[in-house]
Amino acid sequence: MSENKKAGLFYGYVIVAAAFLVMALMWGGLFTFAVFFEPLLETFGWTRAVTSGAYSLALLLVGPFGILSGKLTDRFGPRLVVIGGALLFGAGFLLLSQTRTIGQFYLYYAIVGAGMSATVVPMASTVARWFTRRRGMMTGIALAGLGIGVMVMPPLAAGLLLRFHWPVTYQIIGIAVMFLIILVAQVLKRDPSRIGQLPFGDDRLAGLEPVTVKSFTLRQTLRHRQFWLLAGAFLGFVASSGAIPTHIILHATGFGIPTASAAVILAVIGGSTSLGRVIIGIVADRIGCKKALIVVLLLESAALFWLLTIRELWMFYAFAALFGFGHGGAVALMSPSIAQYFGLSSHGIILGVIMNGNQIIESISTVAAGHIFDVTGSYYPAFTAFAVTSFFGALLAWRLKPTGLNLRS
Length: 409
What we know:
409 residues; disordered N terminus; Growth Hormone, Chain: A; mainly alpha; 17 helices
């Protein structure tokens, strides 16, 4: 208690702010793909499925590299991991400006995807180590940066494309994001013990003896039935994670909505995901991760079923707000759920394993949505599948049981 008081500002809040900025810059940069989509189609004449496949590859590689970044964060802390990710992201965008063939396009987005692995897993795992209480809220605030980035960066890229050709726009975004993230990474620290503080809400701050809680190792976690229920529940919402942001603009313009107006749909999704992460994080601190997860999965399922009936612009905006809120809340619950059910000693690598499964499904579904449109001329079969999958995820979350670690289920 005295050490934290002497320190003045609790450094965990600096960690949350830094995580917020890392998430905003890098994910906002990745989501500019939707803005580059049309210029790339016009330049190279590729199909939608082939073009979106590069974005899917980037998402796919976030998973396996996320396992590595989680393990490295558990051992060495987040600073070097994030710096390495920033360098890869910047290099990928600079190379994308030199794209001439589809093979190059896929390779360069693969480099971007490897860099992206230094975001969700290291940041969420680090925030979890700094907070015992308010963990859900602080994780939600940190991950809200993703939504703010999605809200800000695609419109910014669209504005740059009005002044510059797409290769120059790739260069500007890559250099700016790389420089800013390296700067922000300098303040990151693995856990409070590195500066003589305790996690926020630690019992020792109140003069009490700490409660010793056994954490699961990765091997123990993978053998536990509740891990597979939790992982399956999260897979329920990720099927639409990449496909909706990638294809929603093209879907909306198919009803005669101007591209500029349709691009705002992404901004609404970004803003509402940020709101969902913070609010659902607070809710999870009060009612537990299980109940909160059921709520957001049902909300996302309802939004996707409604999308099948939408034709007008205001309805697309309303859908974006509802979908984004539910989706953002689900993302915010991943790290606190793992800490609640399986502890902190292997938190980063466990989160990385779940993220790996998520990215595989997300990348497949993004390409599948484009292929379904190429074959049928409609996104409706894909949207229906996403809605059903979210509902199924809620059923899996409902079946979650205590592991012996979690204080509230």
